[in-house]
Amino acid sequence: MRAYLDIETSFSGGISVIGIYRPDTGTTQLIGSGVHDLNLYTALAGVDTIVTFNGTGFDLPVIRRRLLADLRNDFGHRDLLYVCRKRGLRGGLKVVEQTLGIARDSAGISGYDAPRLWERYEIHADQCALDTLLTYNYEDVVNLATLEALLDATPVVQPTATMRRLMQ
């Protein structure tokens, strides 16, 4: 069983939201004080592989530092960032989604906005900011499943020397 995972962080580097999408149970979002290792492992019960986008460089190391949860040791991991790179898809998740025609309701919101939204919620109790952040995170994890399906359905084309020159 696969789980699609993405985190949002605060300005201090803490984890504000962990989003997990599982095709069998839907989406779980751990928020604020609910972000801890017991809830994370409970949400991942029965999962054998975690799928991320840049989880190798960001999500999993932050979780390991902040929660002392070593997901790379406890689960298989597939980082779609590297699958995209092998297919010539460059940019972050939102750029790749746009390239492949994956739509978002939260278009225009980026990872740079996530800490601002969290701060507005924490400091000003701005429920609209939290709702926007949760929608953004929800689309991150659900779209990872869509992205993986598209990548797995698309045959790999090895670039020719001419194609490599054009991509530079």
TrEMBL record:
InterPro entries: RNaseH-like_sf (IPR012337), RNaseH_sf (IPR036397), YprB_RNase_H-like_dom (IPR038720). Residues 3-149 form the YprB ribonuclease H-like domain. One of its GO terms (molecular function) is exonuclease activity. It comes from the Bacteria. It holds the Pfam family RNase_H_2. PANTHER family: EXONUCLEASE-LIKE PROTEIN, YPRB RIBONUCLEASE H-LIKE DOMAIN-CONTAINING PROTEIN. This is Exonuclease-like protein. The lineage of its organism: Bacteria, Bacillati, Chloroflexota, Chloroflexia, Chloroflexales.
